[in-house]
Structures are given as structure tokens and as C-alpha cells.
Write the C-alpha cells for this entry.
Amino acid sequence: MKKRNFVIMGAIMGVGSFVLSYFGNPANTGVCVSCFMENVSGAIGLHDNVRMQYLRPEILGIVLGAFAWSVYRKDFVTTGGSSPLLRFMVGVLLIIGCSVFIGCPVKMVLRIAAGDVGALVGVVGLIAGIYIGLEFVENGFQLGKPTETPKASGYVIPAFMLFLLILGVMKAPFIGFSEKGGGAMHAPFLLSLGLGLLIGGWAQHTQFCVTGGIARVFLWGPREIMNCPRSTGLLVSLASFFVFALVTSLLTGQFSFGLYGQPSSNESYGWAFLGMLLVGFGSVLIRGCPLRQLVSAGQGDTDAGVTVFGMLVGAAFVQNWGLGGNSSGTPVTAQVAILFGLLLLFIVGMVNRKRGYGIAPEYQLGLD
């Protein structure tokens, strides 16, 4: 694949996200999978926080864009059967970890590009989590090799997102729409949907994944950097994402350098670190960050589809049980959830490890 495709991927993410913030999305939240999943779960009635209810077109668009592009390129292949219930649980934990940090890995990059110094602790936590996850993978961790399944099952998630999109366009009376709070802050519908479709399609084309790009540095060492984009190009996409995001935040007046008083942040740095550690750890075990799960679900991966449903349920848990961080800090319930989640991942990692096995075949897919 030509290197410009990876650069374009980063440009779409970086420019598009800050354009969405400029036109109405919350500050530093042009695109955030975990925040938007909380909005979507509230809109369909999984929680009753009236400030967090909106069928985010970005989420729906990402899945539908990945679906359309994969069908066009004949990449749509329906697979599944690789420990779906465990993936569901990890999907729940990913959203809890993101919510404690107040943002998914994509938003983490946006926060840093907007000058939020405190978000750097999330980078350290994410890298630490990826490293721990890879230690398990390199020592025989496996969830089972997915197999090809009937085509119809691969259509479930795209059809579900299309159904939600229709409900959103029709403004169905049983769908929640916030009139205040974060859920009420959004860019124009068509702009959000269009960017979501673009992100989904191009992420499917380039296999964009925040945790995947970082993980390859651990897997290949200096060769990954020296050979990019001849190897994967994911690092090129990440670098491009940050540079374009930084430039756009500066040009649109959204850049504010500092540690305190940043949007979507608090001073609970230790828990933010652990939250992103949980996200990095879990993402490696299921082969992809939250954004990657949406894209994979769109291209027929039913295991990723189960993870997406887990993320939706996790978003409801966050709101119903107070498991997310807020401007005051990290509630005790969220602290317990993080520690419990890390314990669960360590147990899953130990139980599903084959000693002396090395990297399982399903984790070698896509490696150069």
C-alpha cells in the first residue's frame, strides 16, 4: 500500500476531529468512541442520564463506512467463534478504562494535540498496558482461531447501525436526545455522519489502530520504525494523525497548552494511568482498540461485533453505576472497577495461555 494512504488516514482523523469540535462537538472530543458509545447507549434507553443521550452519527458512520468499503473492495468476510463471551467482557472493560481516563485512545491523541499536558499520563498507561498484553500474547495467549461463518451473521452489526441511523433521522419518540450537557453538544448531523463514513472506510482500507501501531514497535523494535511504511504504516498514520490534529487545533483556536483546567480532564493522574493501562492490555488481547473493533465489526468480524455490544453495555454501566472519571476526580466505584478489571484481564491472560506455544496463529494475521 502506498505511504500516502497512511498519511491521508491521519489527516482525516486529525483535521476531521477538530473540525467537528469547531462546529459543535464538545472540546477535544471531535471523535471519541467511548464518549459517543455512552451517548448512543443513553439514546436507546440503556441509561437515564439526560445529559448523555444522542445517536452519534460518527459511531454509526464508522461501522457503515467500513462495511461499504469492505464490500466494495471484496474484503467483507464473515468470521467468528473466537471466545465471543470473553471478548464481550473485554469490550465492557475497555469502555470503563476509557471513561476513567475520560476518553478513548483517539481522544487521548486529540487532548494532547490540543495542549492538554495531563493526557500524557494516558500515553504512558496505554503503552504499559500494550506491553503487558504482548507479554501474554508472546507467551502463548490465545482466544481461539476464528473461522468463517454464514454471511448473514456478518450483516448484524451494520444492519443494527443502519437501523439506529434511520431512527435518528426520523427522530423516533422513544429515542433520547439530550437538550443540555455533553449529549446536546454536536456538530451538524450530515457533517458528523460524513466524517464517520470517511473514517470507517479509510480505517478499513489502512487497518488503522492506535494500539496496533504501538504494539508493532514492541514486536519488531527499530525495524518497525526504519521500515515504515514498508511494513505496516500504522505508525505513519499515528504520526500523521497527531501532526494534522495539532496544526488544526492551532489554526482553529482550540489549542490551550497547560496542565490544569483542560476540557474533559481532572487531576486524578494515577487512575487515568491505570484506566489507559486497562485499555491497552485489553485491546492487545482482543487485537484492536475500540475504534478498530467498530471497523472490524463493519467488515464482517462477528467477534468484534460482540465486543461492540460489550462496549455498548459497558457504556451503560459507566453511566448507571458511576464508573467514569469526572471533573472532581475518580469516584470510588470507578477505582474498584479499574482494579477489578485489571484482575480479570490477568486471570483471562493466565487461563488462556499455552506455555511454550509462542504467538498463536490468530495473532500473526496481518503481521509482516
About this structure: The first helix runs from residue 3 to 22. The chain has 17 helices and two strands. The first strand starts at residue 79 and ends at 80.
